[in-house]
């Protein structure tokens, strides 16, 4: 979402309730996000047999947040690995060319 963009209204359905949301995101993206949450709430209600929408939404939000944090941790790990491998490869190339890193 960009700060300068105008906000658009879009109606979504989450946990059986309609919500009017205003966002600078494209309406289709907002609907996609809402559907993802609604699907997760529905899955949690089915698996846990929860009748309370409020609790199911909170559990779904925690589950999505957990996935987000795990993905961020994996992304950080992969960035470190790419950096390490890039540096090792640059050293091998410099060594093979007989060039020192200080020459650059």
From N to C, what is the helix and strand string?
EEHH
Roughly what percent helix? 55-70%
Number of DSSP strand runs: 2
Largest sheet: 2 strands, antiparallel
Structural class assignment:
alpha+beta
Total DSSP helices: 2
Q: What's the shape?
A: elongated
Low-confidence stretches: none
Note the gap between the termini: 39 Å
Give the overall pLDDT as a whole number. 91
Rg from C-alpha positions?
23 Å
Beta-strand share of residues = 5-15%
- Strand arrangement across the biggest beta sheet: 1-2
Characterization of the model:
With 104 residues, the protein is of the alpha+beta class. The protein is 64% helix and 13% strand. The chain contains 2 helices and 2 strands, in the order ββαα. A two-stranded antiparallel sheet has the order 1-2. A hairpin with a 2-residue loop joins strand 1 and strand 2. Helix 1 packs across helix 2. The relative contact order is 0.09.
